[in-house]
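I hope you will forgive my troubling you with a question about protein structure. I should value your view on which stretches of the chain appear to form regular backbone elements. Here, with my thanks, is the record as I have it:
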Amino acid sequence: MADSQSTLMIVGFGPSVTLEGRRIGPPAAVWTINNAHAHYGLRTDRIIAMDDLRRDWDDYQQYVTAIVTAGVPVYTSGVYPEWPDLIAYPLADVLKTLGMTPQFGARVLSNSWCYAMALAIHEGWKSVELIGAEFVAPDSWWDLVQAAATLKSDHPEWMKYYKRSLIRNPTEPGLPGLCYLLGVADARGMTILIPRTSTLMDMDREPFFYGYSHPPQL
């Protein structure tokens, strides 16, 4: 259940799982995406795995087994009697909480991360930490050096991020939906915690206001 005084931690597969030396105190609960608990050897209280696990059994038995034998509730799209820990994701209730039509919700909920974040909003968590929610690759040191070297003397440092080699592209669907949900969560007063090493929301890059030759005085 949601605890207004504590943090829900959601853990995926991105590199910030191992790069981030987090320490904000123990979370009230840990949710993991798909089989991240098995991959990283983590304790988890709940798994969000929106793949139809019976459908995927023939091709991904090791993956499915790690999820259905974890001994914790698994929120997913299909519930089957052979796996009693599976719980049907409360899609209609979540969409109602978010004020979304099914048509718009189908665009936002495009990845298990999105379903997890939407469920956290629905359950009323006040603080959520996202670990390993990376959809784009980190910047390479060499690309940063090369991009900085090509800047003209009167160009601000942030312009290197708009060089072709540093333009970021998602490696899988879901980033726009998750970013939208982070905005919804923030508007509702939820505290969002993202590791400094995460590429989510470009947290691993130095902050800047696009367009300004000099930082604006605010």
Remarks:
- Residues 175-187 form the longest helix (13 residues).
- The chain has a mean pLDDT of 92.
